[in-house]
Amino acid sequence: MIKKRVIPCLDVKDGRVVKGIQFKSLRDIGNPVDLALYYNVTGADELVFLDISKIETGHDLMLEVIERTAKQLFIPLTVGGGIQTLNDITQLLNHGADKVSLNSSALKHPELIRQASEKFGSQCICTAIDSFYDEQRDDYFCTTHGGKRLTNVRVYD
């Protein structure tokens, strides 16, 4: 029997965890480090931080938050959001992330997935796919920038 795994994903905007529906009506629900520790002690198998504001605002990687969190976790930490380069990945891994998640950059520069996998190992590179169902075209399409920009890339492609 396949073991079920619990992997909470915390959307982080401007250094705070937020909750919304389809990236809209976001409300602040807490400090990312505190919530990470909560999931750590309550039995989560892994944890994901997605910085949903970096790609839009261009702010620095949330390295301090990653480092403070990683020092206290005993579960793997995946970080995504606004990762554009191999240098971004290096910084996140050096500050305690166990894995990185690519989204907008995976669509814009798909070769980054291969380059990162070759440099850091495929075990720590993953992609996140945000999607939108287009009723007129009767299919799911990838979105970028925290679900705000629709692409012409079909999810299953």
Structural features, described:
Pfam families: His_biosynth. GO terms for molecular function: imidazoleglycerol-phosphate synthase activity; lyase activity. Belongs to the HisA/HisF family. Keywords: Amino-acid biosynthesis, Histidine biosynthesis, Lyase. Pathway: Amino-acid biosynthesis. With 157 residues, this protein is α/β, with parallel strands linked by helices. The chain has one domain: Aldolase class I (TIM Barrel, Alpha-Beta Barrel). Helix content is 29%, strand content 32%. It contains six helices and ten strands, in the order βββαβααβαβααββββ. The protein has helices at 32-41, 54-57, 63-70, 86-94, 104-108, 111-120, and strands at 9-13, 16-21, 24-30, 47-51, 77-80, 99-102, 125-127, 130-134, 139-144, 149-154. Strands 3-2-1-4-5-6-7 form a seven-stranded mixed beta sheet. Strands 8-9-10 form a three-stranded antiparallel beta sheet, with no helix packed on it. α1 runs parallel beside α3 (63-70). The longest helix is centred in the first third of the chain and has 10 residues, at 32-41. It is globular and about 45 Å long. The two termini are 30 Å apart.
How much of the sequence lies in strands comes to: 25-35%
**Overall pLDDT level:** 90
Q: What number of structural domains do the residues give? A: 1
Query: What CATH first level would be assigned?
Result: Alpha Beta
What is the fold-level CATH name, i.e. the topology?
A: TIM Barrel
Number of strands: 10
Q: Largest beta sheet: what is the strand line-up?
A: 3-2-1-4-5-6-7
Order of helices and strands: EEEHEHHEHEHHEEEE
Distance between the termini: 30 Å
CATH architecture: Alpha-Beta Barrel
The biggest beta sheet is recorded as: 7 strands, mixed
Low-pLDDT segments, ≥5 res = none
What does the overall shape look like? globular
